[in-house]
Structures are given as C-alpha cells and as structure tokens.
Amino acid sequence: MTFSVAIAGASGYAGGEMLRVLLAHPDARIGALTAHSNAGTTLGAHQPHLRSLADRVLAPTSTENLAGHDVVVLALPHGASGAIAAELEALGDQAVVVDLGADHRLVDPAAWEAFYGNEHAGTWPYGLPELLHAGETAPRAQRAALAGTRRIAVPGCNVTAVTLGLQPGIAAGLVEPLDLVAVLANGYSGAGRSLKTHLLASEALGSVQPYAVGGSHRHIPEIAQNLRSAGADAVSISFTPTLVPMARGILATATARLVPGTDPAAVRAAWEQTYADEPFVHLLPEGQWPTTASTLGANTALVQVAVDEAAGRVVTVTAIDNLVKGTAGGALQSLNLALGLPEALGLPLDGVAP
Ligand SMILES: NC(=O)C1=CN([C@@H]2O[C@H](COP(=O)(O)OP(=O)(O)OC[C@H]3O[C@@H](n4cnc5c(N)ncnc54)[C@H](OP(=O)(O)O)[C@@H]3O)[C@@H](O)[C@H]2O)C=CC1
Ligand SMILES: CC(=O)N[C@@H](CCC(=O)OP(=O)(O)O)C(=O)O
Fold it and tell me: What region holds the Semialdehyde dehydrogenase NAD-binding domain (predicted)?
C-alpha cells in the first residue's frame, strides 16, 4: 500500500527531518511541501541535505494545498497547527493528520492554558507507542490506541526522553512520583530554526546555558500526564533543561526517590521487563551509559538505570536524537501503526558516527 503525504512547514527543522525519514519509507509518496514566509522558494534553499527534492518549490501553507492527501504532517509553530487542522476537518478532508507541535497533546484544557496561554485546540491520540498504561509491565495499550487513528499528537522531544527514562519505575510502584527531578542537555535544533535567529555563535559555542528554569517549561504538564498514564496518582517534577553546543540530541538525567524497602535488584528487572521487546527503546547492558552521539540519525532511545543507595534514589539516563525519536521518527512509527503498516517500517535503527 502506498500513501501520499503532504508536509506543512517543510522549510523548518522538524518538517525537514520528517521529509528525510519519509524519503526512506518504501510506501510514502511525497506530495505538497509548504512553507510560510519562505513559500515560493525551493526546498534546496532551506534543506540543502535533501538533494532528491532540492528543486521542489515550496507552496504556501493552506488547506487548498494540503487537502486531498492520504497523510498531512503539520510541522508548524504552536497555535498554527490547531487552526489548520480545524480547517481540514471542516472541509471533510479524509487525511490522517500528524501534528508535530504541541496543540493536541494535553488532555486537560486548564493545563494547556496555564502553560501555553491561549485556547486549547483539543486532544488527539498521543503518538508515543511505548507509553505505559497503568497496570502494564510492557507497552501495549498505547499501540492499540494508535492503530487506525486519523489523528496523532506527536510528543515533545524532552517529554519522550524523560517519560521513557522514568515510566518503568512509576508503573511498577518502585519510585515516588511526587519527588522527581530531571535535568536535560539539549542540542540547539530543538528550539527550531526561526525562533532563535538572534543567537550569536560566539555566545552559543563553548557555553552551556539553562532555560525555562523554575517550573515554567511547557513540557512539565505533558510529562506529568504521561506518568499518570503509567499509574501515578499525582506527579511533581522539577524540570531543568540546558542548551549545550551541539546541533542535535537530548541527554535526560531523571532521578526519583526509591520507595523505602525496595530491593535494588527489582529496579533493573522493572526496566528490563518494560523494554525487553521494544524495537527502538534499548536498555543498555549494565555499566554502559547512553550518549547523544550514539543516537544521531536513528530512531532509538538508549536508556540506563542505576540505584544510588546512599541517596535513596533511582537515576535514569536517556539519550535520543530530538529530531528523530524525539520528533519525525517517533511520528512515522505512530503513523505506521495508524495506517496498519509494520511499526518499524522504513525507520532507521542505526545512527551515524562519529
Ligand atoms: N525542533 C525540534 O526538535 C522539535 C520540534 N517540534 C515541533 O515542530 C514544530 C516545528 O518546529 P521546528 O521545525 O523546530 O521550527 P522551525 O522554526 O525550524 O520551522 C517552523 C516552520 O513553520 C513555518 N511557520 C512559521 N510561522 C508560521 C505561521 N505563522 N503559520 C504557518 N507556518 C509557519 C515555517 O515556515 P517559513 O520557514 O516559511 O517561515 C517553518 O516551515 C513546532 O511546533 C515544534 O514545537 C517538536 C518536537 C521537536
Ligand atoms: C532546545 C530547545 O529549545 N528545545 C525545545 C524543545 C521543543 C520540543 O520538543 O517540542 P515542542 O515545542 O513541540 O513541544 C524546548 O525545550 O522547548
């Protein structure tokens, strides 16, 4: 079965990466590629690494250009995707719509308004196939929720990393969900191409800088939502991202207080059981630690867990490529499920190195 796919926001980082992974998918046929301020220019002017479509002219992002495809991917700023998705719905367009942005991720409108400051667009099935549901020891229910869906809300990249790191301990009841701490090292591409044009290389290179400190980051309610899905009654997480001088990658170190009396051996067993059969989430052998470099270009999440007995805490480290497992690869994995295709079809398991 082949499917046609349009990408809105093809001039941006997320849209460009979506196009790259779709070009390697045996069943995808690339349709309209659209942009906003860069409409009318060629794809090659913005994505010079995508040679096979370098001469394609970017059309304006409009329902007229996006309608009539089997799949529409929205790689647009927050707010823009909700509006265009509503227009496609009103037209009666039959496409499977995949939103790489945040507009349809949160279930609770009050949480949306508190962190995003505008009206909530709605809630779509959440595009993290590996999300645990309460009572599960391995992820199945979220895959069932994605099978055949016509709408997919792709997770935030930081959220994917922190959720995958912590959820086995939450689901198994081994850690306290009200005492979570996450500190992340993030590559610059996570901030998007258009949002940081003022940043000087002389300031970015050779420096690590925190941002959205003190409980203000938009991904906090999304992480809490996921960990409640995994079985927590309530979640409290201190979340601090930092920008590090690399283009891609997230290294998320997330720690949690061990429930008193827990056998440390049970910890590794829980993480092993959760990810034993996962094609893209790999618990590394004991003593090996995830690095961002070993995930670049791949749809993998590398996870490690250890018990710090003196501190009474479980320490998890998760590495992903923010643009692949954190965005476009995860989106294609969920899209495969939506279309009834093998979940791993066309997705890169191997990365690039050094
Ligand atoms: N970068 C990442 O790692 C991740 C990004 N995402 C999400 O993906 C989405 C796109 O992000 P990213 O690619 O990084 O951002 P970029 O800034 O790199 O790209 C933004 C894209 O949206 C278009 N655009 C800008 N303003 C508007 C508008 N008002 N209406 C319609 N289109 C517009 C731009 O077109 P033009 O160039 O023509 O102006 C461009 O194609 C965001 O919602 C982001 O949160 C999700 C997970 C991770
Ligand atoms: C480095 C950097 O700024 N990263 C972004 C990641 C954005 C992302 O994952 O996605 P959404 O905007 O779609 O939620 C951040 O932390 O906000």
Answer: 4-138
User: 10 Å Cβ neighbour count for 207?
Assistant: 10
Tell me the pairing of strands 96-99 and 71-74: parallel
In the DSSP assignment, the letter for residue 214 is T
Identify which of 7, 17, 36 to mutate to test ligand 1's pocket (most ligand atoms within 8 A of the CB): 36
**Which residues of the chain are under the pLDDT cut of 50?**
none
CATH number of the domain to which 53 belongs: 3.40.50.720
- The pTM (predicted TM-score) of the whole model is 0.98
* Residue 350 is assigned to a structural domain of this protein: no
Specify whether 285 is located in the same domain as 329. Answer: no
Tally of domains in the chain: 2
CATH number at residue 196: 3.30.360.10
Structural domain that includes position 116: 3-155+325-339
Of the candidates 8, 14, 84, 157, the residue annotated as catalytic is: 157
Judge if ipTM > 0.90.
yes
